[in-house]
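hey m, so remember when u said the tokens were messed up on ur end? i reran from scratch. heres the input so u can diff it against urs
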Amino acid sequence: MDTSILPQFKDLGAILVLALAAIGSGWGAGVAGMSAIGAWKKNFSQNKPASFMLIVFVAAPLTQTVYGMIVMRQLMEIANKGVFLWSIGAFAGTAIGLSALWQGRCAACACDAMGETGKGFGNYLVVLGMTETVALLVMAFTLMLLGVVKSV
């Protein structure tokens, strides 16, 4: 076993990308979930049917954890070859996590609006898709960069 300190942290970049993406996903889903509960409460107090479709908004930020996991897998492959890319994991994870956080905030607004009007589901979904695109682009470009690093 290698007792030097550097190899002890070989998976740090991989752990960072997953952890930061998951933190953003949890935070975003939590914010959206609180708003969905508030919208349902409003509907119930007015004896109106509560839309189960709000669950779609609440679940939207969770996909960023999957993107973090995909990048994590590639980072672990490279780390096993002795190349430690902590900064890539930290920055990609932060960008993906922030995308999830802001998607959750947009989803919270969507829950409020849909809970009150019962209309606009498609429009709200488009906005969530736009914030999702940021995470997808970060994942794609990070995987592209890691492919270049892997081939060197």
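this time it looks ok to me. The chain is about 80% helix and 0% strand. if urs says something different then somethings off w ur setup not the seq
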